[in-house]
Amino acid sequence: MEKRLTGKMKRMLRAKAHHLKPVVWVGKEGSDKVIKEVERQLKERGLIKIKVRKSALLKEDKYEIAEKLAKACDAEVVSVIGHIITLFKPREGWGRYLSKKPKKVKKDEKIVKLFEEFKRSIKKKGE
């Protein structure tokens, strides 16, 4: 099951993470060496910042590192700003954070329903 946080949830998580300091650093050894530490920190805190050193960027792009860490730890990338990656993994499970149907779809369904009723009422008047 693919995890997708809504934009509002990501914005809220970015605001919560603003004051946090990085707790994990990815160095020249790459992201493979730090996966266990990232998992441990996510289990303990839920929302963490990771600092990517310049030496790690010689081998991989920062976005690739973020995706690799998120996939390995079953987490979601909240943001990648500069050399800082913010990851989120809820301690109580993903159930309540997974986005359901977008609200826009519900509005579109209502509009279609109202339009169909309007067409029916016009046909009745014409008969």
TrEMBL record:
Gene3D superfamilies: YhbY-like
PROSITE patterns linked: CRM (PS51295)
Pfam families associated with the record: CRS1_YhbY (PF01985)
Keyword check for DNA-binding: no
Presence of keyword RNA-binding: yes
Keywords: RNA-binding
UniProt cross-references to InterPro entries, sorted A to Z: RNA-binding_CRM, RNA-binding_domain, RNA-binding_YhbY, YhbY-like_sf
Residue ranges annotated for the CRM domain, each copy included: 3-100
Entry superkingdom: Archaea
GO MF entry, a single one: RNA binding
Protein name (record): CRM domain-containing protein
Protein's organism: Methanocaldococcus villosus KIN24-T80
Lineage: Archaea, Methanobacteriati, Methanobacteriota, Methanomada group, Methanococci
